[in-house]
Inverse folding.
């Protein structure tokens, strides 16, 4: 058994952090949560429990990064010159995509996932569509790129839900994949389903899910095949949705409806589906998403970086869609920033303050993300759940003088001091225990970009 004595811990159903909580775990599961009585609390620097590891600061459940494209990490700081939009950024992204193979992808993803661990992320949802060789020819193992991601997460010490994405066409009108896009495609949804279903990697850190890249990339008459494959395998289904107005316009022109309505009519929405971005839904779309209990993953930093816009987060939550968070293109890997942005962007959009409580933002960053990724036993400091603990300093330049309840509005990823995943210490004193993160990021990015 391992025992931790937290200075503060954010417990389920508590509106504010609880001081002096003893957390016990065995076999990677939490077996005890005990808020110490006032008379038992540590005083004058004396440890009441000598065998417990003291965790100074605020301890949170593990954070879940619901939406990641690991190879986009190589683009950070390289796409900000001049003007442009999502579509011009996408051309730069394709340049990186053409240079990756299973070995270089393993190295880059290992470093990217280790960076996530440093930021307090204990589980990541990898929206994976980089399937085949650069010209579209499958590798000898048609799931070699997915296997590289599975191994990368294991080496970085975090859990992974590999969301194998169906990507078949270049436009809503069905134009064929060309150039770098060819390596994304399987020909049709049936062949995608066969390849995805045949991928059965092992590892306690792993779940395999499914994804519809977007209504641009999967023809309307094949959406139901992807949804049925996910349903038959009882795995999460994710989809990019209404990221740009151009996507909505093209879908209306081709099908006479919004992307949300198209997915709904093809059976792709529901409580096991998470749509990503949902930046430009109509009022009726919001109702459809909420009534079906479809989940929504927001990626505010990427949505700002690509000039996509600000989605109606509060309206979607009020309608019944549980919100989670993702770092997407990894312009920043910091779920504290992503969570704050949900509130702050809503203030910009409405010119009013106070839309989300700290507790709601913690839920989005923790349990809601884990559920969206198929890990219903994670994301809470509760008996029976996975022993994932993320401790944030309260004495840094950013958090000094901030009450524990306000730390989620003040802290950054740089304030994470310790990360425990399934009972194992992955980050201690702000340092990853298995990966030299800065060095490996620099080396792997230089390889795939061809620049120092």
């Amino acid at each position: 058994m391992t025992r931790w004595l937290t200075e503060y811990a954010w417990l389920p159903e508590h509106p504010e952090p609880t001081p002096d909580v003893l957390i016990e775990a065995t076999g990677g599961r939490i077996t005890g949560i005990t808020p110490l009585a006032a008379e038992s609390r540590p005083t004058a620097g004396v440890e009441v429990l000598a065998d417990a590891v003291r965790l100074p600061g605020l301890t949170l459940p593990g954070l879940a990064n619901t939406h990641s494209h690991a190879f986009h990490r190589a683009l950070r700081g390289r796409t900000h010159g001049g003007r442009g939009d999502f579509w011009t950024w996408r051309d730069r992204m394709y340049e990186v995509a053409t240079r990756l193979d299973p070995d270089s992808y393993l190295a880059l993803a290992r470093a990217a996932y280790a960076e996530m661990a440093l930021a307090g992320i204990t589980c990541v949802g990898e929206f994976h569509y980089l399937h085949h060789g650069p010209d579209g020819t499958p590798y000898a193992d048609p799931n070699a790129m997915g296997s590289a991601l599975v191994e990368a997460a294991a080496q970085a010490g975090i859990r992974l839900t590999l969301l194998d994405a169906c990507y078949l066409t270049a436009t809503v009108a069905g134009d064929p994949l060309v150039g770098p896009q060819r390596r994304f495609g399987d020909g049709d949804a049936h062949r995608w389903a066969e390849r995805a279903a045949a991928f059965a990697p092992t590892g306690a850190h792993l779940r395999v899910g499914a994804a519809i890249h977007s209504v641009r990339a999967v023809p309307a008459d094949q959406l139901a095949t992807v949804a049925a494959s996910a349903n038959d395998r009882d795995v999460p289904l994710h989809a990019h949705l209404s990221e740009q107005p151009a996507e909505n316009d093209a879908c209306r022109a081709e099908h006479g409806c919004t992307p949300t309505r198209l997915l709904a009519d093809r059976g792709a929405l529901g409580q096991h589906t998470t749509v990503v971005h949902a930046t430009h839904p109509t009022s009726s779309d919001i109702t459809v998403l909420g009534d079906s209990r479809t989940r929504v993953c927001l990626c505010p930093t990427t949505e700002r970086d690509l000039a996509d816009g600000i989605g109606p987060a509060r309206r979607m939550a009020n309608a019944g869609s549980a919100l989670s968070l993702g770092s997407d293109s990894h312009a920043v890997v910091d779920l504290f920033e992503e969570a704050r942005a949900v509130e702050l962007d809503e203030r910009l959009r409405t010119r009013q303050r106070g839309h989300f409580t700290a507790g709601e933002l913690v839920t989005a960053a923790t349990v809601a993300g884990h559920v969206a990724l198929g890990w219903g036993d994670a994301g809470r400091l509760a008996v029976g759940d996975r022993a994932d603990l993320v401790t944030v300093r309260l004495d840094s330049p950013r958090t000094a003088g901030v009450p524990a309840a306000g730390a989620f509005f003040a802290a950054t990823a740089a304030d994470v001091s310790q990360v425990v995943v399934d009972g194992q210490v992955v980050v201690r004193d702000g340092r990853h225990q298995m990966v030299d993160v800065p060095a490996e990021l620099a080396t792997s990015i230089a390889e795939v970009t061809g620049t120092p």
The radius of gyration is 21 Å.
